[in-house]
Amino acid sequence: MPTLTIALDGRELQRLPLTRPRTTVGRRPYNDIVMEHLAVSGEHAVFVLQPDGRVQVLDLNSTNGTYVNGRAVVSADVGPDDLIEIARYQLRVIDDTPLPPTATAAAPPPALAQPARQARLEVLDGPAAGRTVALTKAATTIGKPGVAVATLTRTGADYVLTQAAGEHPATLNGQAIGPSGAPLHDGDVIALAGTRIRFVLC
User: Fold this and answer.
1) Do residues 87 and 35 lie in contact, with contact meaning Cβ atoms separated by under 8 Å?
2) Which pTM does this prediction carry?
3) Domain FHA: where (predicted)?
């Protein structure tokens, strides 16, 4: 909405939205904008709001004139870059329309937490063939004491197989386990004390 700012000697006095087709300026009290200064005529000027939103200032045959950007005018289109002077008053037409709220990018949805992977052992042969053991503890010991014992240790989401005791070492996928152990992967087969056990991670 076009708005008229009125200042006296550089000090802003008033802001008036130009909502009507005509806004009059002068010294007489019936004007829309009253300027009580002897250099201002009784009916000095009028601001006209055009249907297309443009604003014109018309001088009403005043004694001391209406100036736009330092030049005396009878009529002129005025905008934010124009300085209108009437006696010691300075006027500007500004667009005081509030800006629309700035659109903000929608925050991405929070990442879904990945479910913890579950591990288990499946006995493949021997008397306990078909048995399944869930690995729910940080460390699980398997085997036969005095024959062969191994430990499955969970570190975070990973599992490591280490030889614990016994005369017959455990193997992993047919390979001997080193002193520091061996990482386990889904489908690995552990052979221990004559029994094969599959490691399942899902």
Assistant:
1) yes
2) 0.48
3) 23-73
